[in-house]
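Model the whole thing, not chain by chain.
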Amino acid sequence: MVAAKEYKVIGTRPIRHDGTDKVTGRAQYGADIHLTGMLFGRVKRSPHAHAIIKKIDASKALALPGVKAVITNADFPRPPEGVGVTDEGPPQPWRFQVQNFLAENKALYRGHAVAAVAATDVHIAEDALALIDVEYEVLPPVLDVREAMSDNAPILHDDLFTKDSAPLADAPAKASNIAAHTQIKRGDVEKGFAEADIVLEREFTTTMYHQGYIEPHNGTAYWGRDGHLTVWNSSQAPFVFRNTLSSVLQIPAQKVTVIPLEIGGGFGGKLYMYLEPLAALLSKQTGKPVKMTMTREEVFESTGPTSGTYVRVKVGAKNDGTLTAMEAYMAYEAGAFPGSPVGGGMNGIVAPYNTPNVLVDGYDVVLNKPKTAAYRAPGTPAGEFPGDAVINEIADMIGMDQIEIRLKNAVKEGDERPWGGNWGPIGVVECLEAMKNSPHYKSELQGENRGRSVALGYWGNAGLETSSSASVNADGSVNLVLGSVDIGGSRPALAMQLAETLGITAEEVWPRIVDTDSVGFNFFTAGSRTAFAGGWAAYELGMEIRKQMVARAARIWECKEDEVTYSDDGVIHGPKDSEGKDRQLTFKELSGQLNRTGGIIDVSVNINKSSVGPSFAGHIADVEVDRDTGKVQVTRYTATQDVGTAIHPSYVEGQIQGGVAQGIGMALTEEYHYGADGRMQNSTYLDYRMPTALDLPMIETILVEVPNPGHPYGVRGVGEVCIVPPLGAVQGAIAEAIGVRFTDLPIQPQDIIDALYDE
Amino acid sequence: MQDVKYARASSVQEAISLLSQGGDTARVLAGGTDIIVQARERRRPVSLFVDIKPIPETQQLTYDADAGLTIGAATPCYVIYNDDTVKRLYPALIEASTVIGGVAIQGRASLGGNLCNSGPAADSVPAMMVLQGTANIAGPNGTRSVPIEEFNTGPGQNVLQPGEFVVSLHFPSPAPNSGAAWERFIPRNEMDIAVTNAATYVRFEGNNVSAARIAIGAVAPTALMVPNAVSAIVGRPLTDETIKAAGEAAKATARPIDDMRGTIKQRKHLSAVLVERTLRKAAERARGG
Amino acid sequence: MSERIVITTTINGERQEFLADTRDSLLEALRDRVGLTGAKEGCNNGNCGACAVIMDGRLVNSCCVLAAEVEGAELLTIEGVASEGELHPIQQSFLEEAALQCGICTPGFIMSTKALLETNPDPTEHEIRFWLSGNLCRCTGYDKIVRAVQSAAETMRG
């Protein structure tokens, strides 16, 4: 393992390999594909949030000139029994996955796909939608998570029973909207509250938030006459998609090829298929390639946002700031099918602190909203925000600095984790110290109606399987074949790790992302795993190449392999020659001799490492509140984060800044605004208000590096934890500015007006 | 996009003819930033786009001290806010036109379109109202002019009759010792529909306010003039008390709804805040500030 | 009822003739009829700027322009920003400052930036942010984009 010292490539900022294509409009994203004879598909969606589908009549649509096929759920084979992987959460029943592709007996949310049509152009496909007659029996919808949990709530699934993992749970008697209940327990919270000087209980809510990637979902499929299905799309999980298509369409996996094109943002939301299975079936029926894209309205209403939540948290603390107990009740909206990220929230709320007594109950609840999807540290922003809010309130009550109270309770290496095991080397204290010493925190906050607050976030990161291969070219360049798509700069990060291992430059490595036929299985690009797992793979590829280069040099110098050394600067040294002179070859020189010494060097590797390093992040936010209008402006922001080793610092900074922007959006301007009929009223970029360039300040990043010993270059995932602290930091800063502690996010101007004015 | 045809009109007569023949699903196309989107999203039935941009009268921007300011209905916002005369003499129009939708929208969008879309929250409408703007309309029965404050009759509805369209907008020359200002409130810093907007025009004679026009938008089916705010300030010096009274009158006049962009309480509150702010700024401009 | 029409226009300095439908937006025509997929669809209603192009010297959202309207117009798309063999300073700055992550918004931002710096060669941070507020980015938080614009402006001022 290469010891952590001065790296040659790691830590520099080379231009990314795919950059020129992306700034010239040449890069091909999923919706840019054009195939001969291509048809265009569109989806008919339920206008009702909850309804029985009585009849679908597509005859008028099929009669429209230009329309070539219409499909419904009946065109799918019967779903397999059992469950299939979708994201980092538990695998989900196949029947639910297929029902989300196209509704079976019930429409379970407004926007639920009911039928799909393929036509010769997109305008005709849209015309055809109005001609598909669907007869519904409208049912009352349930749109609030606590209502959905109550005894007389409308039930979405007759075949869904609560899976309860708490000890002594009874077997459920009747169908429920509560899909699962899980618990984290440590110590005895009642004892902990008894020992506390202060006990604070608060309730918090967040709404659904969408990942908001600028590129809508897309999928193009061609079902060839030989029965081979090819799919082009923008996806975070081409191999999972291949496997899912194989399972739900009942064709062997080797007859499915998924070709991932460039992806315009994912944040977890593109781990799931929506259009690909529909395009595949339409292609099968028409014999032509079928391209499908979503409109922005469909993206909001019919793909997964993250859960809206209700969290009740009770914290006990001593007067010196020591936390004695934390109890949380967390109800998460799963949307129409089970599988919310409540587990992320549960881990997140307890992770950063050594609270000895902890009891967290988490509920995964279905209701008549779109099925939720992973969104950057899934479940964790909504889960940790209540913890930050209450801890900040306690700090203010006892007159303790908000960073100091966190330092007092912060977890360190060796401490026990609430869900078992111990923490490895982690950077919590380092982040808190960096915050304390930052120019931001040391600066004086001046002016009226201004406030400053902090928050601390955790995210576990993932390992999982990655396959990769590399080959050395005669000119000393190296091709790196990747099966993990690049959604934020992982291409350069992986190329750099291979380059570092070989002692060559990042520019001499050419990374390519290939299709599912061309490399072994890769798990998804998510969970902040790509630089970690892909980096491990790059390292092992590099070490294997080094070994083989040594063997070739030995052949050239006609010596033993153990007389040859490969030094980290990419120079291969051999024993002295007959005249006593040093013998050496650079990587490039030796590459030129590969062909005559046994052929090219081509290596591949398959890794699955669990030695991930978790991430912690501490943020500081300053806000200014306009008391007349209720407008909140974030005036200054600093994000510290333990990044392990920053492979390409620019992209690490960029990930952090992007996560901060999303978190600020969650805190202040973004929401899913529902009417009583279950319609999302703000399903456009006009009214789903993501921060614009004018809404944000420069976002300062402080990269703290506590290398992860479970990775050759100390890599920790960096992409996710950064979205967690902004919620608590901004809410806390508003509390400092105007003395109002809001518990329901987003905190919008009308909420500030409500709090400050009587009528 | 719904099933539409496209036709170009190069003269007022040709436009009238195309609109009349096309019936009520023939729509004027100026900047298109509202109507093209509405047609695509099938929120308005459109069978024919009648492009009026080639008509010279819709693209003019002329001013003289006697005739006042005439802006062609299809003149894009960027032309308006880059015009030195408008900047100097009608800053309230500049304030509104620089924030409609973002720079790319302003490359196409027009004040005529903003008016004729008849949205309750249309940004430029309160400014045009207090500046005594009129809409010059041409149609099968000839031409007529309608004061801006009478033009819109409800959300998406206005006084245009079949075959009619707005050719240009006219604003009288600013009187001496007068000033006007416009402001809106939005949840972000750009790119939002106004939660509330307001505009004020004041004129002084000596120390007293001799005339005023105050309008609020996004707080009723159409933008509203606020005569009670005017009577609170006219005929006396402008003081903190009279300004506050004008604000209270605006709050009482507003009849907003709760929706995904704001609440009743908030919009009433903002009506007062924005009227007070625009009043102060208009007064500053009137006094030469 | 809609019609196929022939549009004659100049795109990136070259005369182009293409067949479009009167239902097509300029964005659809560029992407599906002319084969220039650099302009992207993000929202199709003028709120994200991913489709931005320059038409007769003005920055416009091509989703809010009909294909029929560009008859006789001069269009500049992202594909025409680099000159023979050399990236434009704005493109180079975006790469050097790492002002893109997924890159889907990048063509729109580059078009907007070009229009900005032609209007105002020395913009303040606030002016940059105001001008770019019509371009949404979900990946970067805008920080590095603003820095790239500042850097490009400095280079272009020479």
